[in-house]
Amino acid sequence: MKGSQDQSSEMQNSRSIKHDLSQIKRILVVGNGGRENALAWALIKCPEVEGVWVAPGNGGTENHPGCMRLEIKASDVKGLLEASLLHQFNLIVIGPEIPLADGLADVLRDSGLVVFGPGADGAKLEASKTWAKELMSEASVPTAKHWTVSKKEEALALLKKQQRPLVVKADGLAAGKGVTVPDSIEGTAKAIKEAFTGKFGVAGETLVLEELLQGPEVSVFGLCDGERIILLPAAQDHKRLKEGDLGPNTGGMGAYAPAPLLNSNELNNVQKLVLEPILNAMKERGIDYRGVIYAGLMITSSGAKVIEFNCRFGDPECQTLMPLMGPELARVLYACALGCLDQAPILQISNNCSACVVAAASGYPEAARTGDLITSKIKLSKSIQLFHAGTICDKKGNLLTSGGRVLAVTAQGKDFDQAFSLVYKGLEQISFDGITYRNDIGNQVRHSHPQDKKEY
Ligand code: AMP
Ligand code: GLY
Fold this sequence. Notes:
- The chain is of the alpha+beta class and about 450 residues long.
- Among the domains are: about 1-120, Rossmann fold (3-Layer(aba) Sandwich), CATH 3.40.50.20; about 150-205, 2-Layer Sandwich (Dna Ligase, domain 1), CATH 3.30.1490.20.
- Helix content is about 30%, strand content about 25%.
- It has a five-stranded parallel β-sheet, sandwiched between helices.
- A hairpin with an 8-residue loop joins strand 7 and strand 8 (about 180).
- It is globular, with a radius of gyration of 21 Å.
- It starts with a helix and ends in a 25-residue tail after the last strand.
């Protein structure tokens, strides 16, 4: 493997060359979720792209003409490297956070491949909450006040001094389960004690305690080439399993975009006050961040504050956003990966409203039931899409459930009423035993019309 210094000087060199972005013919997307299904669907729209391979993909990958599966897991670094060299992929887009945090992008870049997704250094933005908090403080990014602790006694003493409930977070990646938001001091103490029982493994050896913020949440995504950023419309996710935002936290049960929680001025402020400073702070640390910066924000009474950063697209926000992107997306991600966003075509973003609702399996998120037969009579069109996540095709060609979040129906319309009406009509055409979905996704924006939206 080449040293990281060699890698970084090669990345710097690629920045100054004039690239022919039309040479993007073969793309590999790594991951098996709904996010990767939507990415493949969006990337194949580029006229120059001849094929998009998804490793390992899912039961819906090959429903998109031009998209193919490669039976290689996202954790199989050697297999992905060999396949990338063999198939001569021009671009590799890494979907999930774990392979990014484990350095998959570094291994591929060391072999001269062009990758959209940060190296292990930049992926720390998501993989270590302490690291991300330090970076935010260095960059003066607005966020909740925090304390890092590595001993139970220290954490309990701090809580006693603070005399208010604090959010308790495992420092490392804990599959979305490492955060407790207690509503009392006793609840905080309980969460601290539990976290130190080893429930989060190494991820929970260090905790971040945070001031409790209040307000609606919104996700903002920036496509970065290490120096520049392209902002995507803000999206709102619905993390709880049940209607009325009740029940356990999930990966996300539905989303919509553009979220009117941020108007265009406010979104530009997020770029200036959050995304650019964090990218610059990484640059100062010698990190050439080429991929998505996903800022999870809370809109508090004193403005937007960062709740967390992720180093990838959100799922299901990605399924919601992809149908709004123009066919230039593949070239834009290629330019990010090459460090030359200044040479990319302008990314056309539709000003339609996009809606997405996830159909989950029974038992999700604790223990999702799998192996149920899926039937779909949904009629797809330019404004309605079906993205697969936890699905597989068996040897007889039957489509079966294979994970918690099974499918996502997405649709676009001139307003959110139209988009959600298409989504919910579509969901009625899908069935599998135990199907469950929220009927209130986007209630915040339904029955609203473009003239009611804040100016975009
Ligand atoms: P995270 O994994 O950091 O995104 O946290 C998961 C969820 O916990 C967030 O989406 C918020 O709903 C909630 N949360 C995290 N940090 C805070 C905070 N400081 N104040 C209030 N809620 C929070
Ligand atoms: N939808 C939230 C996430 O992807 O983390």
